[in-house]
């Protein structure tokens, strides 16, 4: 099995993904059925569908920066790491809001601007990007290039991104993002992981869709045969990390109570990748990841308040 070897002298984590704005609103299973959404899954739709869906609910909405890789980069920036986000957004107020928030959270940006609206998320997402708009220079100082699984719907883009990342000498981290994506892209995903991926991250639903295994330990072992380092997130039960022919069980942080799980996996990845970049032992990488995942679940949206980051930094200082 291949070993993880970090590029010398490089400390930047580059995230590639959809530049989105999250619109968060509380709802129920009946509402999900009315919209045709699958719980825990995702479906690509246009902005008109999102406007229509929003009009169907009278619940108050919260608007925050979003997108899986974007959330992860913000977390790394808040931890004090060097992060860059590469994506595409609209030229209007939503795009400006997204760019300003990234900069405020210490994330370097390369946001390509489009005449179409900035992508929005309401359990359903819309996004766009073109392969020829990715520049190899974005990866020259990257130790890790972190890619969200949502890009599997744009195969030319994800192959171009991963090819440039590998040519730059960076390690590639892939978060599978959604079990519906795995089900729709399994054959392509197998090839992609074999060719490019060093760090494979999945939750239990995504892992089962990919490996066919529901047993946690068997699933993470199966994932570890696909990539040199594999992560299985199992919600309030914690996580597993498999690397160098050993499997580590990471206990959960906190009491397991969640106000909102939006961004939990993304911020888990922030803590984990930050720990790897800084040479932490895998156990500490997992503990930091769990703390980030727990803290983001204590509020609505994929952000952590200052008091939460203060608690996380105590783990870093131990």
How would you portray this structure in words?
The protein has about 325 residues and is an alpha/beta fold. It has helices at about 30-35, 45-55, 70-80, 95-105, 155-165, 180-195, 205-210, 215-225, 265-275, 280-295, 305-315, and strands at about 10-15, 20-25, 60-65, 80-90, 105-115, 120, 140-150, 170-175, 200-205, 230-235, 240-245, 245-250. The chain has one domain (about 10-315): Ribokinase (UDP-N-acetylmuramoyl-L-alanine:D-glutamate ligase), CATH 3.40.1190. It is built from eleven helices and twelve strands. The protein has a nine-stranded mixed β-sheet, sandwiched between helices. Helix 10 (about 280-295) packs antiparallel against helix 11 (about 305-315). The longest helix is centred in the middle third of the chain and has 18 residues, at about 180-195. The radius of gyration is 18 Å and the shape is globular. It starts with 11 loop residues before the first strand and ends with a helix.
Shape: globular
The whole-number mean of residue pLDDT values reads: 85
Total domain count: 1
**What is the CA-atom radius of gyration, in angstroms?**
18 Å
Biggest sheet record: 9 strands, mixed
Looking at this structure, what is the CATH superfamily? Ribokinase
CATH class: Alpha Beta
Spatial order of strands in the largest sheet: 5-4-1-7-8-9-10-11-12
What is the first-to-last residue Cα distance?
A: 32 Å
Number of helices: 11
Indicate the structural class.
Answer: alpha/beta
- Tally of DSSP β-strands: 12
